[in-house]
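During the reporting period the student researcher (J.K.) took over the structure-prediction task from the postdoctoral fellow and processed the backlog of single-chain submissions. One of the processed entries is reproduced below for the supervisory committee.
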Amino acid sequence: MDKKYDAIVVGAGLGGMSAATFLARCGKKVLLLERHHVPGGYASSFRRGRFEFDASLHVLSGIGVPGKRGRLFEYLDFLGVASRVEFIPLNELYRVIDDRIDVTIPPDWEEAIAALAGRFPREADGIRDFFALMKQLARDLSGVFMAAKKRAADLTPESFPAFSRWGMKTYGEARDHFFRDEDLKSAVSPFWSYLGLPPSKVPFHMMASCWDALLKQHPMHIRGRNQALSNAFLETFAESGGEVRLGCGARRIVLKDGAVRAVITDEDEEVETRVVVSNASIPSTLSDLVGIGQVPEAYSRQVNSRQIGFSTVNVYAGLDCPPEAVGATTHENFIHFGNRIEEAWQTAFTLEPPRGMLFTSYTASDPEFSPPGTAAIVMTAASYARPWYLVPPERYVEEKNAFAASMFDQAERYFPGLRDHIEVVEVATPLTNMRYTGNPGGSIYGFDQYLSDSGLLRLGNRSPLDGLYFASAWTLPGGGYQTCMTSGFLAGSMALKKLA
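J.K. obtained the following structure tokens:
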């Protein structure tokens, strides 16, 4: 390893690999440090028996289809990553199931509207108006970001009317304005779990962008699991001249007069650089790598005022039967994530059985995901880390297995016979997420994305320290696969200007 690089990227999650590959493709000498032995962070996979599971990916937005490609695909194509990955279109957006409804939403704007209007004919006009507003709000939000970036004179309420009226409303406020039927409200609300807050708290503009990203450009999965995407990034990075060190993280960022000067690795090597892009969480970067004493007090207050976002309990199960044998024929299934959303979120602060969960049937969308005649499913429940901290070590396995058992109880109401076909099972808690990613609280979306910490109010990619940038879910534009890769592009672009 050389002793001097143009840039050092700390962490090989999607944000870090995106920034590192972008800088390497632009001709910079880049070192990528990753403490784990495999790249990807949450975008990785693992094996149990004859099954290989995705750690986290449910659906991927921003790809599009041939002839109508999305922005993420165009970015991956520019990097040289897209051609190394096979994207699989999903036949349904999601299925939502609870005590009163069972609704499947197609992956297309007009088809989704038609499906909901057919199921709730008395609300048909409101459905059309609501979806039209979401489409306009998503466009406005993109325009607001561009205008703010350029400091444009047209950043006015008249230029972005949907954002001006609805941009600071919650999804619950907007949904309740258009709909009266509680079952319809349930049917359009499950995406809260993709953003980390219930409808009463999640920003409407974020939910509108989520709907727009998935319906405009078709939801996708990845052949070979999300590890294939991470591996493609790493291969492209190496071919572009980048150097990666797996199993070797960063111990400290060295500053001089408030500016980045070097990084000390886990192997106690000091490597000179003017630029560091941190894919680690913002709190960990400042406390562990920089040192709070070197961070401006005002910025520390900004960071400390934010709340660590939720984590998950994941139950990974390999079944000895095909998915149709237990009725798991839809990729993405939200169980009680419609009519019990507020309860599900409140329960996430406890170790009580979850009030709702996500049931993903990977083999239903990709028969090659698991061995012939089998199925790979993952059940996901929202869970904050605090209650798990309080479990004595000698009771931890018992508690996590009891939690998983309650998830099987709930799933078997809609997928009967599930337990009878279990071949392998693995349970991951927020503590598991912390162990493998280093994220405080095992957070999957960074800071909770309240109105006060989303959109233009999210912490930016540029730190107050000269030469230090952030690329992760903890900064702009927020949590999620597409957004983390976008974060890497934003941080990489800023770093490139610094190096010019």
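The committee noted the following: The mean pLDDT is 95.
J.K. will present the remaining backlog at the next meeting.
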